[in-house]
Task: inverse folding
């Protein structure tokens, strides 16, 4: 294995695959800056790749396919040795990775909760009955309808700038976005409310990035190891184990949020009907070194509490 000391001395080129959205590029630029600051002799080239999810903007994500809408083409480039590492938003990455690939590093997580951006700076509980709220997420929509069934959901696709402009046009009274994306793009001041996880539980891996590589590319894995944040890795592994055991995809309102505190790990999970009429929620705690086992255990508890019938019904419709 190439040592980090050798990486500092050698002249190395690193090709980083990324989507072309403003948010994806901002995340990839951040990763590039971290790598080049650590290793002055490493030149990082960003390679922009258009994914299926970027090409189809006029349909809800749940209608245009299940797994890998925002990662498949980038993973294909990795497998073909056209890039050396992919920068993903973990919430876009399916629970099962293609053979030959792994996520080697998890940078420190940004704020994982959702954010409400509204006209008139009205918080979620103050939105007038009948207000139109834009979101492309079944997870957000189901939980929103569960606590505010009097609101009207409007399907909203596109990048962060596009969604903010839609709100400004007056067609909507509020939109829900990831707080992490707004912060990374410099729009934190636009947030009306960071929504408590007790009201809307975040997506699996929300706010976290993952650096995906070929599992046998020891040089790149070693080079990227400095950027890994242990607590983030543990939290994400617990959440993704939950997702994998539930066999979840973007067609299903599934949420999960793990939090590491010293040697302990707390994981919350949720499965809901798409219309919000039924929400099954539970949580579990344990030792941080048992992250994946905790995720599997919580998933099985949710399934035993009725999530199995919800998932079966939803998947039979798709």
Result:
């Amino acid at each position: 294995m190439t040592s980090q000391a050798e990486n500092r001395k050698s002249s190395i080129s690193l090709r980083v695959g990324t989507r072309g959205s403003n948010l994806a590029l901002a995340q990839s630029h951040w990763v590039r800056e971290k790598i080049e600051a650590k290793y002055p002799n490493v030149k990082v080239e960003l390679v922009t790749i258009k994914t299926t999810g970027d090409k189809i903007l006029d349909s809800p994500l749940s209608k245009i396919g299940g797994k890998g809408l925002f990662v498949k083409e980038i993973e294909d480039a990795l497998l073909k040795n056209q890039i050396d590492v992919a920068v993903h938003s973990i919430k876009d990455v399916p629970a099962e990775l293609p053979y030959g690939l792994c996520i080697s590093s998890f940078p420190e997580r940004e704020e994982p909760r959702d954010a409400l951006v509204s006209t008139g700076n009205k918080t979620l509980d103050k939105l007038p009955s009948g207000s139109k709220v834009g979101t492309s997420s079944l997870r957000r929509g189901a939980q929103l309808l569960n606590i505010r069934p009097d609101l009207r959901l409007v399907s909203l696709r596109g990048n962060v700038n596009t969604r903010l402009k839609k709100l400004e046009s007056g067609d909507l009274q509020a939109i829900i976005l990831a707080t992490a994306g707004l912060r990374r793009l410099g729009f934190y001041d636009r947030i009306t409310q960071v929504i408590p996880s007790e009201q809307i539980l975040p997506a699996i891996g929300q706010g976290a990035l993952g650096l995906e590589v070929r599992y046998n590319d020891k040089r790149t894995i070693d080079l990227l190891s400095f950027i890994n944040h242990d607590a983030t890795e543990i939290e994400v592994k617990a959440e993704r184990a939950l997702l994998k055991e539930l066999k979840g995809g973007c067609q299903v309102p599934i949420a999960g949020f793990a939090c590491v505190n010293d040697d302990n790990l707390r994981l919350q999970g949720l499965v809901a009907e798409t219309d919000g009429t039924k929400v099954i929620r539970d949580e579990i705690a344990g030792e941080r070194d048992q992250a994946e086992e905790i995720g599997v255990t919580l998933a099985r508890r949710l399934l035993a509490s009725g999530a199995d019938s919800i998932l079966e019904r939803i998947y039979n419709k798709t």
In short: The chain has a mean pLDDT of 92. Residues 291-317 form the longest helix (27 residues).
